[in-house]
Specification:
The chain is mostly helical. The chain has one domain. It is 56% helix and 1% strand. It has a two-stranded antiparallel ribbon with strand order 1-2. A hairpin with a 2-residue loop joins strand 1 and strand 2. Helix 1 packs across helix 12. The two termini are 18 Å apart.
């Protein structure tokens, strides 16, 4: 993979763009308001599950759901009844999902937390020492919540077993597992070396341009292939550059093309040296 030849360019990009001032607009910003890991994991589940569509609508929808949960979302979830949860979200709509879908997902999370003590503890049960990535644990985690949620969860939690890249779930894991100026962390049971790149349109386009994958479909196989390429550069933290790289495609004042051209030029220099 060409990127192995110029990790310094990625490090420079990380140093320039992996800063909190470049987060907005991004659903990640909601996590900064919660110090408690118990609250933060609930907020991360809500924010990531609704992270599809236009970003302004995403932020409005996440804000609306969190307003119903109040300043202590984990406590509110533990104390509320299924009928209260459903009533509080009546009338909510985020593109393909209704308040009933969100209430079902939160009810599933409530039951999982009641059974395991936390979402993190549920996820940890699916981790095995020999697993290179979090994918097997992700299957178990999604299965536990959807089973507890019942049939009304909709597509808020994508199913890795059906080939989805699980971009939103991998975003949630990046937010909760990593800890730097951008990602606030909160979970300690999962190591960042097992994380999978949250493969969105911007990251897929960059990965194709840089030769990290030739796969045209942004599915879980492509996400794993791109992650493997990044792991050769940063074995302990393969999603280290995700935020910085995706800023190039998301923010109008930034230019992904210039970075890609610079990488290609460096590759040619190294090849001719």
């Amino acid at each position: 993979m060409p990127l192995r030849q110029y990790p310094e360019m990625l490090e420079r990009l990380y140093g320039e763009l992996n800063r909190r001032r470049y987060v907005h607009p991004d659903p990640l910003e909601f996590l900064y308001d919660y110090e408690s890991a118990a609250d933060r994991e609930v907020v991360a589940l809500v924010a990531s599950s609704l992270a599809y569509g236009r970003v302004k609508q995403i932020l409005r929808s996440v804000s609306a759901v969190l307003a119903k949960l109040g300043p202590r979302p984990a406590r509110r979830l533990a104390d509320t009844t299924p009928s209260q949860l459903k009533r509080s979200l009546a009338g909510f709509r985020h593109r393909f999902n209704s308040g009933e879908n969100v209430a079902a997902m939160l009810l599933g999370a409530k039951r999982v937390i009641g059974r395991h003590g936390s979402l993190e503890a549920c996820f940890r049960e699916g981790l095995r020492p020999g697993d290179q990535t979090v994918l097997p644990a992700l299957w178990g985690f999604v299965g536990s919540i959807t089973e507890a949620a019942g049939p009304n969860c909709g597509h808020l939690l994508p199913d890795p077993a059906r080939g989805s890249s699980c971009k939103r779930l991998n975003l949630m894991l990046r937010w909760l597992v990593r800890r730097d100026d951008v990602d606030p962390g909160g979970w300690s049971a999962v190591g960042p070396e097992r994380l999978i790149v949250p493969l969105d349109t911007h990251m897929h386009r960059i990965a194709l341009a840089l030769g990290m994958t030739t796969r045209k479909t942004p599915d879980i196989r492509t996400a794993l292939e791109v992650t493997a390429a990044f792991r050769r550069i940063s074995p302990a933290d393969p999603v280290r550059y995700d935020f910085a790289l995706t800023r190039l495609g998301i923010r109008d004042e930034m230019d992904a093309g210039s970075f890609i051209d610079g990488c290609r030029a460096r590759c040619k220099e190294n090849a001719s040296a």
